[in-house]
Specification:
Layout (H helix, E strand, L loop, with lengths): L14 H19 L6 H36 L3 H7 L2
Amino acid sequence: MPCLNYDEPPQRRPAHLDTITRLACEHCSFLLSIGETIPDYAKAWWEHHQGEDARRRADETRAEEARVAREDALAKLSPADRKALGL
């Protein structure tokens, strides 16, 4: 999962923040996978990050569905239809 620091837009955030975010996410995921709990100092961040990650995944899914739908629609057009539409 490409975990990112969602607090800043991509063009404004330093690259090392994404690396730190990935490490923190991997650490929290590992703790949960072995039955441990997230430390209190990281719980708020983890919940926020999980929400942002879910939104990102949903956006990626919608974009992929739209891309597939567009390709399917274009595949149904005849060469004449494509030419008429300037495609």
